[in-house]
Write a structure and sequence with these properties.
By secondary structure, this protein is of the alpha/beta class. It is built from 15 helices and 18 strands. Strands 1, 2, 3, 4, 5, 15, 16, 17 and 18 form a nine-stranded mixed beta sheet that branches. Strands 6, 7, 8, 9 and 10 form a five-stranded parallel beta sheet that branches. The chain has a four-stranded parallel beta sheet with strand order 11-12-13-14. Helix 4 runs parallel beside helix 5 (about 205-220), helix 11 crosses helix 12 (about 345-350) and helix 12 (about 345-350) packs across helix 14 (about 395-400). It binds zinc ion.
Length: about 450
């Protein structure tokens, strides 16, 4: 399909390109083939769609670098609880475990995708189980994703929480390997797969080392949680006499391409270990605030040249999947913590959820900016609302004033998924209905 976005204000997010006013974007197939008059690549008469971009801001699609879409149906059930302790899990995840079906995870993840598209996210990094069903929802929704089946080594039993279980470890490892090999490149290339050891405590050795070898064999990246919580720190110290980062290094994990969520408990020497590697941290500021936990040391990591992307984590601990909120919160948290309002400049946080997200996926060459030759993953923001005026600084309005309701039109892989706030790629009402139906059934089955 050939599409022209006519006359938009384009924020390309490239290193040196300025904001372009009244600019046309040409899309052919799944790629951007021209930007501006000099980039014109086909006449308007050949365009199957011309989108009016006047008064709108075009941005590269947002990249949510850490979430768990099958947990979206657990939204709103663990508020005010802080980080789960051994005796205090997310109630519905505990009570529903025996009743959850792959179909529940399909509709839960599809619900997440509808929410993400509505808030301008075009790519997300996801890890959980039943990832075949998440992959199917990616096919059906039109979004782009990097998916990993979690390798876990604990029994899902509240009386013996996190007890090592060889059968679970072997089964989830095999599922991870099968899924990663089967699904990479599906959905016309919109799906990439990752190896996903859950974390250094919940995925114990020798499975961390095996996960590293699997990633090497398959030529895939790894996504995991790292240095996230106190029990993980305690376990690594007691069992290995090391920090989680040292455990990951010695397992060979850090020799691979790694997208690591949280990174909250990092020492100076941990950060020294992480520098100079293909290591990408993911800050999830809203989830960290809600759980009353620590903060990803974003300025320290960036100063050391370590890439940091942004994520929402799951809807159970956030409780939405809105990257615009994350962009703003990461600025405010570090302003407050450091006493320096410019500790993370606003344009850095916008980079974290576009360019840095693409780097974290090893996809800098075709995602993360609006440039000729890149994938046509494009967000159009409405600027007609009073909160988006005046235009003293367009970039400031995007970073500090915009909200999810301003996301107007979203393209992924050259396809219009949402236009003028209406999702056109699938039946959104049916997705919401089905997700609600799953929850009603689970509540009845679990007596909750
Ligand atoms: Zn997580």
């Amino acid at each position: 399909m050939k599409i022209i976005i006519r006359g938009a204000t384009v924020i390309p997010m490239t290193a040196h390109s300025p904001i372009l006013s009244e600019t046309d974007i040409y899309v052919e197939g799944n790629a951007i083939v021209g930007i501006g008059q000099t980039g014109r690549s086909f006449p308007e008469t050949e365009a199957e769609r011309v989108i009016n971009g006047r008064g709108k801001i075009a941005l590269p699609g947002f990249i949510n670098s850490h979430t768990h879409t099958p947990m979206t149906i657990m939204r709103g059930v663990s508020d005010g609880r802080g980080f789960p302790r051994a005796d205090d899990r997310i109630p519905l995840e505990r009570d529903w475990t025996a009743h959850l079906t792959p179909e529940d995870h399909y509709w839960s993840s599809f619900l997440a995708m509808a929410e993400m598209i509505r808030s301008g996210t075009t790519t997300f990094v996801d890890m959980y189980r039943d990832m075949d069903r998440v992959g199917q929802a990616v096919i059906d929704s039109g979004i782009r994703a990097a998916l990993g089946w979690e390798i876990l080594t604990f029994i899902n039993d509240e009386t013996r929480w996190l007890a090592y279980d060889e059968a679970t470890a072997a089964r989830t490892f095999d599922e991870c390997a099968r899924f990663a090999a089967d699904w990479h490149g599906r959905a016309d290339g919109r799906i990439m797969t990752l190896v996903a050891p859950h974390e250094t405590f919940t995925c114990q050795e020798p499975w961390l080392s095996r996960a590293a070898r699997l990633a090497e064999e398959l030529g895939l990246g790894i996504t995991m949680h790292l240095a996230e919580w106190q029990p993980e720190i305690d376990y690594c110290r007691e069992r290995y006499g090391k920090t989680p980062v040292e455990v990951a290094r010695d397992a060979g994990i850090l020799d691979q391409h790694v997208i690591a969520a949280h990174c909250l408990f990092l020492s100076e020497s941990d950060m020294d270990i992480l520098g100079g590697r293909s290591f990408h941290a993911v800050a999830c500021p809203q989830s960290h605030l809600k759980l009353a936990t620590k903060t990803t040391p974003v300025p320290d990591l960036l100063t050391r040249g370590i890439n940091v992307a942004l994520g929402t984590d799951s809807a159970a601990t956030n409780n939405n999947l809105d990257m615009i909120e994350e962009m703003r919160l990461v600025v405010f948290i570090h302003a407050r913590l450091t006493g320096n309002a410019a500790a993370i400049p606003g344009d850095t946080s916008l980079r974290m959820m576009t360019v840095n997200g693409a780097r974290a996926l090893n996809r800098e060459h075709d995602l993360g900016t609006l440039e000729v030759g890149k994938k046509a993953d494009i967000v159009l923001l409405d600027t007609s609302g009073p909160h988006m005026h005046p235009f003293n600084s367009l970039l400031s309005n995007v970073i500090y004033s915009a909200s999810v309701g301003d996301v107007l039109t979203v393209l992924v892989d050259g396809r219009i998924l949402m236009e003028d706030r209406r999702i056109v790629a699938f039946d959104e009402a049916e997705v919401i209905r089905q997700a609600d139906r799953c929850v009603a059934r689970l509540r009845a089955q679990a007596g909750s």
